[in-house]
Amino acid sequence: METLTARRLNRATLARQMLLARQKAEVVTAVERLGGMQAQEARHPFTGLWTRIDGFRREDLHRALHERSVVRGMMMRATLHLVSAADYAAFHAAVDPVLAAALNGRGQLTAGLDLEALLPVARTILADGPRDFTALRALLQERFPEAGDRALGYAVRTRLPLVMVPTQHRWAFPPSADFTMAQTWLGGTGQEPPGDPVQALVLRYLAAFGPATAADAQTWSGLKGLRAVLDGLRPKLVTFRDEKGRELFDLPEAPRPQEDVPAPARFLPDFDNLVLAHADRTRLMAEEYRSRVTTKNLRVRATFLWDGRVRGTWQAETKRKSAVLILTAFEPLPEDAIAALTAEGEELLRFLEPDATAHEVRVEDS
Questions:
Q1: CA pair distance 302, 46, nearest whole angstrom
Q2: pLDDT digits (tens, 9 = 90+) for 135-185
Q3: How far apart are CA 212 and CA 239, in angstroms?
Q4: 11, 20 in Cβ contact below 8 A?
């Protein structure tokens, strides 16, 4: 069985994540290829698509959301994701155990909730029109005054298939967006297709993030027991070993570039799935830096890549029409890296802050 080095795994994942070169792609196609995009905050997928799609414009994602070919709802790891309408229909049933476990994990918060009584009431309320969760919780508490409003909201959020309703807001969703039932929003597209949804989800994962172990797939999805699923898929897959001897699964025709393929400077937004999709993330960053990317309160910081690896974090600030991108490097960067990151960072600032009259990139050592 062939052994793949960490650098070879790095290049394979970057190729699938459209990070070796920007590519011409429609938004819905790109979102599917990426295995969905975590969207805890509305603006971050815009940056994630800008860094991957050649010629991406903000209105491209707006259009896909308003045309309902892409939706934002709770999916993998019980977190908000952008996924295509087709993938939502295909995979929501697969991640339902993850959403149920998220609710059960809040036992102290949700103790005593009667879901059989609560969920039909929530469906009836939402049938009258989309609601944000402040309004929805208030209406639910009128019917269930003994329950906490946050418990009611979280139960509905995890146990009903809901999607968020886009607006003309700059990043397509206001801070407190309305939700509606997925089937109402998607119509016939919201019907679950035939086949095993968990197997389909695992295949989508490998296409976006492979080669990978069962533990990697579980980390990305939040599901348990995926080794058995991968074993069942063996006739459709190829296998490798990593340098630690672990078995890796992959699709036969998926790209696995050689490790000498160049990887350009790239900027990833907060919560980008690239840094969340593997149990072992050493193909992307040194283990010692993992805690500097994912904080104790589970904030996932925006990162930048040089030669395919996470080299630090970044943040953008705007004051008086002047936009500044501040890069905090984990280690001193060579001059060619600084030059490439500066050029790419200036373009990022122009995308994020098109009305700014000045753009500056600063590189700092941590």
A1: 13
A2: 999 999 999 998 888 899 999 999 999 999 999 999 999 999 999 999 999
A3: 9
A4: yes
Owner of token pair 């397509």: 172
Half-sphere exposure of 32 (CA within 13 A, CB side): 18
Say whether pLDDT at 189 is over 70: no
Residue 271 burial (CB < 10 Å; 0-12/13-18/19+)?
buried
Looking at residue 190, what is its pLDDT?
Answer: 44
CA angle 247–248–251, rounded 5-degree value: 145
Round to whole Å and give the CA distance between 104 and 124: 24
CA distance 4 to 12: 10
Tokens of 96: 């339902």
Cα 101 to chain centroid, rounded: 19
Provide φ and ψ at 103, rounded to 5°: -70, -45
Of 141, 155, 40, whose CA–CA distance to 103 is shortest? 155
Q: What is the pLDDT of residue 112?
A: 76
- For position 6, what pLDDT does the model report? 97
Cα–Cα distance, 142 to 157 (Å, whole number): 18
Question: Could you give phi then psi for residue 194, rounded to 5 degrees?
Answer: -70, 170
pLDDT at 192: 56
Q: Please tell me whether the overall predicted TM-score, pTM, comes out greater than 0.90 for this model.
A: yes
* Tally of CB atoms within 10 A around 317: 13
**Predicted local confidence at residue 297, as pLDDT:** 80
Give the tokens for residue 160: 């009903």
